[in-house]
Amino acid sequence: MLKVAIVGCGKIADAHVLQIQRLAGCEIVGVCDREELMARQLQERFGIPRSFSDLTGLLRETRPNVVHVTTPPQSHFMIARQCLEAGCHVYVEKPFTLYTSEAEELVALAEQKGLRLTAGHDEQFSHAMQQMRQLVQGGYLGGPAVHVESTWCYELGEGAYVSALMSDKNHWVRKLPGRLLHNLVSHGIAKIAEYLVGERPAVQVVGFPSQFLKKYDERELVDELRVIITDEAGTTAYFTFSTQMRPGIHLLRVYGPKNGLVMDEDQQTLIKLRGSRYKSYAEKFVPHLTLAGQHLRNLLRNGRLFLANDFHMDAGKKYLIEAFYRSILEGAPVPIPYAQILRTSRIMDAIFEQVAIPNPSVVAPPPPTPVAAS
């Protein structure tokens, strides 16, 4: 029986609890939040035995095997490190850490202690994304990816969140190294990182506040981002983040030396792009029929998943948690290779450095802490 604990009892914690409670051989033994009422409400709503306002007490009294860190990003590193030091496997919600130096330290510590660690990039495991991965691994592209394009949108709207962010110059989002971007871009960048090689891709960035933010006289926050990435093998990638594009899409395109693929996260569709052209006027007619057939197959697949009760917003989280627990119980590989987690973090660091607007409340990254050999 795996004993599981949740640290951070906000909205996202509910999704974790629901998926963990589905799994045989797992028991949530405690939840923790520095706001005691937050911990208690989660405990009572889901019938969890214990709640705590102190992480040390949670670890000492419940001795969990696995801890899910679902707190705001600023606390991810310290909490995850304490849990690893206590001998726990750790699932950390996105963004994994604030800085690559912190991510490197957590990975080194997990490896030194023989523990498993993962990041909450659950969008990597949606049904369409898994289907795309299978095709790529099966050789559909005709070789390694040549070019990748990831577009990730977020609709700010005019609601309470925007009002609070605009009116409060000490809002916690403003204290992140990437400010508004930091909590929003990791899913889109992680999709690119999967197809790159090497540790330190070259990154070129254009970022600016949209006209929407400017009407609030906002000059510190960046919500429009265009990025060019190149890895050491010559693979290129474009990343687009926007709060203003309509429709607000979540799209991944991967092009190989032979064929390409397009994955739509919102519609859960995967389209194969034929690399060669048809002869003469057939190119004007046959592709339309082919695409229509693919869209019909996507519709039928989604319908089957819906009828099987496996077509929901948290399908990716369900799969990621299951895969993470298999890596713990069966010694399977971690669902997201550490190299991908670190590559995502390095790309994010490079982006935030290039769009940085001085803010005295943002703390500089700490130097890496050496991890003693066992």
CATH topology of the largest domain: Dihydrodipicolinate Reductase, domain 2
CATH second-level architecture of the largest domain: 2-Layer Sandwich
* Mean of pLDDT: 93
Order of helices and strands: EHEHEHEHEHEHEHHEHEEEEEHHH
Relative strand content: 15-25%
Q: Percent helix among the residues?
A: 25-40%
Residue windows where pLDDT falls under 50 for at least 5 positions: 370-374
**Quick one: CATH superfamily of the largest domain?**
Dihydrodipicolinate Reductase, domain 2
Description:
- With 374 residues, this protein is an alpha/beta fold.
- The protein has two domains: 2-122 and 316-337, 3-Layer(aba) Sandwich (Rossmann fold); 124-312, Dihydrodipicolinate Reductase, domain 2 (2-Layer Sandwich), CATH 3.30.360.
- The protein contains twelve helices and 13 strands.
- The protein has helices at residues 11-22, 36-46, 55-62, 76-85, 100-113, 127-137, 160-167, 186-193, 211-214, 286-307, 315-329, 338-354, and strands at residues 2-7, 26-32, 51-52, 66-69, 89-92, 117-119, 147-153, 202-208, 224-230, 236-242, 250-255, 260-264, 269-273.
- The protein has a seven-stranded mixed sheet. It has a six-stranded parallel sheet with strand order 3-2-1-4-5-6, sandwiched between helices.
- The chain is globular.
- The model is unreliable at 370-374 (pLDDT under 50).
